[in-house]
Structure formats: structure tokens, C-alpha cells
Amino acid sequence: MSKIGVIGGSGLYEIEGLKIKKTEKIKTPFGEPSGEYVIGDLSGKEVVFLPRHDKGHRISPTHINYRANIYGMKKLGVERIISVSACGSLKEGIKPLDFVVPLQFVDRTSQARRHTFFDKGIVGHISFAHPVCQDLAKALYDAGKSKKVNAHLGGTYLNMEGPQFSTLAESNLYRSWGMDIIGMTNMAEARLAREAEICYATLAAVTDYDCWHQTEEEVTVDIILENLKKNVENAKEILKDVISCISDERSCPCKDALKYAIVTDPKSITKDIKKTLDIIIGKYIK
After folding, report:
1. Are 62 and 113 in contact (CB under 8 A)?
2. Which of 28, 52, 88, 145 could make a disulfide contact with 210, Cβ separation 3.0–4.6 Å?
3. Cα 232 to Cα 252: distance, rounded to the nearest angstrom
């Protein structure tokens, strides 16, 4: 049975109804993940849960060890990851307390986040035109609609650096580009999940209008937390529904993303690199 990973963002530090079997601390070649992985049963499926900011929300978006988090999911046998994330809206029609399942990302991070497993001694160029698993995204959207929440399928998530919120000029610039929502975490996760041949999709909980909306208050942590509390219960119900209906078999291209991506001559790949990346490249590089 394939495992389903859930990465919890701001406000989601545990999953109610998850029958916990064990917690596991994973060692990775890329350092420490955000925290312990919680492994259990939800809706008849095996689920691996990780709060990306750790319990107590101690890790800022810039300093999350994204590589270790995704590597740990891969090591535990996860084939699909659902990212639950708080975000701001850049469109009038996407209101606080709505949910968005974006299909595209734009990266505006400025510090050195590690976005790839292929950075030393091996080169891999994955196809990333469509960064989200279409099958998983559609399942998330359908689950949202079944729960009678206001859900949107599609649009672009702009990944800013943070931890500060946007200036008004930045917010208006992103709106002029046609961006739909804004957050601080998902770009690196999506890239690394694709390299690891894990399906990835985002359930984005809208908490605010960033700072561009003239008739709304400027975004503050208080506003975000208040709306998160309202949204988190709906998010948990959506998770239960979508996890129960996910098939064990995958028919999407995510599962073979590395098939033609590795361009380094296998003879030039050292034993250490092969060992480090075995769970990712092993089926292609012997």
C-alpha cells in the first residue's frame, strides 16, 4: 500500500482522527528534517505527517530544510504529498477563508534555499512546466467542493521570501503580473518532490488579502491566525475525504519524472553520490 504524505503549514501541527502507529526521526544526507514524522492511519490509508515549521512553529520559511523534509518522505515510502499552506489572496474573487489548489508557481525567493538534490557531482533536469500533479490537484479540489467550501482550482502561487509580509508596491506588482495567491514555502517543496518522483499538490487556505486591498485591514499575524483557526477544521475534513479516495496506483507522469532527466554519464557518478541518492536515482543508475 502506497503512503500519502501531508506537510502541515501554519496552524496545522497535527491531524485529528489520525490513528498514530509511531513517530520516526529520520536521518538524511542533507541534515535534519523539520521534526519527527508522524505515521498512522487515516480513512483506511497509511499517512505520514510532518509539520514544516515543527511543533511550536519554530522554523522560519527561509530556514526550513526542504531537501531533508522531502528526502525523509521518500525514505518512508511516500508517493504523494499534500501540502496544506496558509496564503494571501492577490485577487478580489479569492476571498479570505476560501481554498485554492494552484497549478503553477513563480519563485521570488532571494536567499539560498536548496531546491534540488542534484547540486554536486550529478546533473538532472526534470520537466517542470506543470509543477503540480494534475490528478492529485483535481482530487483535492473535488474534496473541497464536496465539503461545500469555496474552492478554486488553478491559478499561480507566488513564493516570496519572507518572513516579512509584502510591501504595498510588491503586492501591486504581483497583482499586475496576474498572480493569484502568495505564500512563503511551496516552490522548493514542489521542485524537490518532482525530482523524487513524488506527486505534489497544494491545498492553500486563504487568510488575508495581503496588503493591496483598499477596504481591508493590512495583513497581520493576528488576522492570519484568526482565519487559520476557521479554515483548519475545513482543511482537516478535506484531507480525510481526499485521502480516502486516492488510489494506490499512479497513472500520472510524476512517477517517472527522472526517466530522461539525468544527463551525467553514470561512469562519472561517484559511489558516494550513488549511495546518497540511491532512493531517488537507484532505479536509473546502478
Report:
1. yes
2. 88
3. 29
Q: Which of 98, 119, 210, 256 is catalytic?
A: 210
pTM over 0.90: yes
Taken in order 113, 118, 122, 124, is the CA torsion positive or negative? negative
Contacts of 66 (CB under 8 A, 6+ apart): 113, 114, 115, 188, 189, 192
Looking only at the bridges linking them, the beta strands covering 3-8 and 45-51 are parallel
Residue 249's CB is within 10 A of a number of other CB atoms, namely 8
pLDDT at 218: 64
3-state DSSP call for residue 141? helix
Strands 78-89 and 199-208: parallel
Q: Is there a contact between 144 and 86 (Cβ–Cβ < 8 Å)?
A: no
CB 8 within 8 A of CB 49: yes
- Of the listed 98, 135, 208, 272, which one is catalytic? 208
Confidence of residue 256 (pLDDT cuts 50, 70, 90): very high
| Beta strand segments in the chain, E | 3-8, 19-24, 37-42, 45-51, 78-89, 99-101, 104-108, 151-153, 156-160, 181-183, 199-208
Q: Which residues contact 90 (CB under 8 A, 6 or more apart)?
A: 158, 171, 174, 175, 179, 180, 181, 182, 210, 212
Q: Rounded to the nearest 5 degrees, what angle is found at the Cα of 248, between the Cα atoms of 74 and 137?
A: 75
d(C-alpha 49, C-alpha 272), whole Å: 29
Backbone angles phi, psi at 218, to 5 degrees: -65, 150
Angle between helices 66-75 and 186-195 (to 10 degrees): 40
Establish whether 241 is a catalytic residue: no
- Report the distance separating Cα 160 and Cα 175, nearest Å: 13
Annotated active-site residue 41? The verdict is no
CB 192 within 8 A of CB 116: yes
pLDDT at 43 over 90: no
